[in-house]
Amino acid sequence: AGIASSAPPWRWHVGVxxxxxxxxxxxxxxxxxxxxxxxxxxxxxLRALLGVDGCxxxxxxxxxxxxxxxxxxxxxxxxxxxxxxxxxxxxTTRAKLAGVxxxxxxxxxxxxxx
Length: 114
Fold this sequence. Notes:
Layout: H1 12-50, E1 66-69, H2 76-89, E2 96-99, H3 102-113
Parallel strand pairs: 1-2
């Protein structure tokens, strides 16, 4: 019942060395990541307080609507229900569709419901 490997198991010192290396790399990278995250958060707060917005948000048109549906594994039925609601309440005839895995099933459903 399963696949049996013919490779010998790792020796204990290889496992210990790998664990020490992983913990060491995490410990070395964590302070730098903490500083970067703190600086980015502070600059976002400062930007919000000063009312500085780096980009102008243009109003889109109906031709610019794109429905992007990712693969959602076990949540496909939730995604299909949401797409059914969108198709019933909005005009999706001009929408561009993109879907991967179960999202492709959702894109096909949108095309079917048009």
